[in-house]
């Protein structure tokens, strides 16, 4: 029984967990904190009452911002539409069919009526509802429930939900990477537990978090980052356990050439020491001021202020020393992380490479391919096909890769209902482009010898006759 309780605990919401709120097609990721007001879709509430319930539970927002689990029987349609018309063409939508006004609806809300009861009132006060067809009635009910029912579903963070959240709210942050394209990248990259994967991305950490989720905390992930430091906002939204982060390493892309040349210096210098030394030297070079006037009178006048000045001076020195010590600790941690990542890259035996960046992928791909073992996959994503065409041409000229494939992804949603299955009217225009391939061991000595051997014999004879 204890084991069952432990297994059930991982599916229950706990305080401090990262969760994803869902309402319709809208998602929002956040962390559960006690008595913290959450604003989602123009509604505010607290997540305290959700602690202890299972993930994927649908909650109803009550007055005061409290959450209450919604019972399955409440999911049924608020009205059994037994009476239905056969045609909607004679129904005129002039805005006068609904007897309830906006003020009446606000009054119903103030009286404490739930969203389901408000929808029932709207149905009863509609003069054209009974004349609509059965399909139109269901569509009307679904539309009103979406508007007036105060419900929210709490999901466990996953690659799919976070990708849909970013693509729906801020697609520019993830280079317009769609969730089906991300799934293809993870599959083509052969991401699995126990592998060593290189990731270069500027998608707010979404691709990096997806790779870590697929690996399950086993293996090693090396994030190659541009700029001053790695960006991992999306990784935090996954809410990984601590041992997941032990497998994550980072390495600046600007040091890759030095690592390949073998002259990378992982010993970080301490600029604070030089600064401290220069300040000390400046202090020693300053001449001492000569006292003026009677020494006894000067001593009596300054004794009262010396204690305060000495105390302030000591406090400033302590703060300065604490800052210097903090900088030293950070530099030492950064040096250790750099050395650990460099040791993983020096073997040049990575199992996979994934690139999804707003930068031009060609120079990054050509450099990072050198860290892959033979017969290993690589995947490059770009919102546009022109950079990937250049990568494709370059790889063909350089060699060392096989099974090169440049493809675009296409997705269409379908409504599957009785007697009305059809594609949705609105769909995504494009999901970007993917270049994938496999590395092979290239024999550098073979091309020179094969060039002479493949030369036609008649041509050599002809040249010899000419020379004779």
TrEMBL record:
Domain of life: Eukaryota
Entry-linked Pfam families: Gcd10p
InterPro entries, alphabetized: TRM6
Record's keyword terms, sorted: Nucleus, tRNA processing
One GO BP annotation of this record: tRNA methylation
Family listed: Belongs to the TRM6/GCD10 family.
Protein name: tRNA (adenine(58)-N(1))-methyltransferase non-catalytic subunit TRM6
